[in-house]
Amino acid sequence: MGKFLASKFLQYVIVIFLMLTLNFLLPRLMPGNPLIFLAGEDVGFMSSAEKEAILEKHGLNQSIWQQYGTYIKHIFTGDFGYSYQQKRPITDLLMERLPWTLLLTGLGLVISTVIGVLFGTISAWRRGTKTDANLLTMFMFLSAMPSFWVGMILVSIFAAQLGWFPVFGAEAAWSNFKGVDRFIDIVEHLVLPLTTLVLISVTSTFMIMRYSMLNVLGEDYIMMAKAKGVKEKVIKYKHAMRNALLPVATVFMLSLGFTLGGATVIETVFAYPGVGRLMFESVLSRDYPLIQATFLIITFSVVIANFLADLLYPLLDPKVGK
Amino acid sequence: MSTVLSIENLSTFFKTDKGIVRAVEDVTFSLEEGEMLGLIGESGCGKTTVAQSILRLIEYPGKVVSGKVILNGKDLLKATDDELYSLRWKEISVIPQSAMNALNPVYTVGDQIIEAILLHEKVSKSEAVKRTKTLLELVGIDGERQKSFPHEFSGGMKQRVAIAMALACNPKLVISDESTTGLDVLTQAQVIALIKNLQKKMNLSVILISHDLPMVTAICEKIAIMYAGKLVEWATTEEILNNPKHPYSKALLNATPNLSDPDREVVSIPGSVPNLVNIPKCCRFHTRCPYAFDRCLNESPELREVTPGHYTACFLEGDKNG
């Protein structure tokens, strides 16, 4: 087990380095001169001395290897550089956005997984019945709706018309809520985007769980458990669900990696200050260091989630590891 | 000797889109205490359906439509769910068709045997662990291996684990459902010898479902032969070998190579098994029977006792009374 983890860990270290290197090379392989991004249109009116000064300030006159070394050093000290557009250190920006994204997408993932697993189990257990058919229709209907549309519909009904929830943001602007009041305010802002996220992502878990459960229910060991005199409920949860959860766990782990990337569309519709929207804004304004940083965050978290999956999977499936 | 199990006019049908599949129809036979009965027939003739009907394991779209399954004077088909739960494994256990898939992959084999013991007997967990150890040693597996998972065993070992599991609650009747399928010939011989041995030692009644006629004639006292969902002949092994009555039994014997008479020609049975969907009233063997006449096409022969203890379902064989 220790050896297995050590070799896995080494693999991930290699992956991270490859990723960092690619991330370093990508903007440098793009056509054009970094001066245009750094100084904008003014670059045409600059003297060569002025240009040199700017390049030197950003370390761009060094050799590519020196630049690479500096880049790696900065990454490991948590310094992602400076956003051209927002004129702020990227680390600050990310630290501001990450908690909101984690709250929204993390909670969304957990809730949609739980709901998907529960209904997937019910549906498979009553396969061929009206319950199964109705659940299938409902979840297929949900998955067919685009997220921005669901978001807009929810906003127009529950925020604009009924006024139950705020229209946008993660908390009331210029408010000074403390303690419980702030908590309630955050929850109120969270309800609509979270509901949208759950509605559009719950179907995949439902389908995977239903299909996996159907497969397991057809297995001989389920029949054997029945023949042994095991009661239905115990067969359902102890024998069937335990096995059927394995593919769901895999998908959960994969999605976990993408939670830090936020939910771009939903965050945009609700003007939610998450990483997804930050990424969207950075792409719109060609804010290269910021784009790089957000991409890097996503790749890092995918790798970490994969490593977590490697750690947890042997506990779930005795056939893996050891 | 007393009768342990008697099956009377058992019929199990499956509802499909194309019509009703009469998978088992009007099957009658019984089993004495300490007797080993071979239930023989080609693939798809309903042997396993009979076994599953006995334990009431038939699931939608299948249904036991009529008949009686009397175990020690009690009709299992009329038993309540609670009676069934306590009766399964305690009175009748199964050695499944493919032990490869009959063990739940996420639990240790010990846990699966212990589950059966704890379900049916008021013993402590440590007592059950001890008994599991004894059971595994009985079938020639190191008792400490109960902590292993199914995938850590070979196919033959899994089969023996399944046998140990079948004996966990000292049942009176064991149904071995083609439990050597998929094993190599040597392992098959070992497993069969083990079953025979344990049967004698524990005075078990065994229904040995198989399509291996020579093997069944070697170890069973009685043989019941099925064809296309019907029982065609039921008698002692000697009677079947020396004095087969039904044309199918005769053809089956002719189609089996015989070591003691290697010069005899092996004759295959021409034609193929009829489709059991909406099959009309007739002798189901008439399409392949060299002796078929008008009556066989329009009437279904009933199982009759032609000589004491020898039953067959053929119009050519007269009643013992006339």
UniProtKB/TrEMBL annotation, chain A:
It is found in: Cell membrane. It comes from Pseudoneobacillus rhizosphaerae. InterPro entries: BPD_transp_1_N, MetI-like, MetI-like_sf. Residues 98-309 form the ABC transmembrane type-1 domain. The chain crosses the membrane at residues 9-26, 100-123, 135-159, 190-209, 244-270, 290-313. This is Glutathione transport system permease protein GsiC. Keywords: Cell membrane, Membrane, Transmembrane, Transmembrane helix, Transport. The gene is gsiC_9. PANTHER family: OLIGOPEPTIDE TRANSPORT SYSTEM PERMEASE PROTEIN. The keyword Iron-sulfur does not apply.
From TrEMBL, chain B:
InterPro entries: AAA+_ATPase, ABC_Ni/Peptide_Import, ABC_transporter-like_ATP-bd, ABC_transporter-like_CS, Oligopep_ABC_C, P-loop_NTPase. Gene3D superfamilies: P-loop containing nucleotide triphosphate hydrolases (3.40.50.300). It is a peripheral membrane protein. The keyword Cell membrane applies. It is found in: Cell membrane. Keywords: ATP-binding, Cell inner membrane, Cell membrane, Membrane, Nucleotide-binding, Translocase, Transport. GO terms for molecular function: ATP binding; ATP hydrolysis activity. One of its GO terms (biological process) is peptide transport. It comes from the Bacteria. One of its GO terms (cellular component) is plasma membrane. SUPFAM superfamilies: P-loop containing nucleoside triphosphate hydrolases. Residues 5-253 form the ABC transporter domain. It holds the Pfam family oligo_HPY. Belongs to the ABC transporter superfamily. This is Oligopeptide transport ATP-binding protein OppD. It comes from Pseudoneobacillus rhizosphaerae.
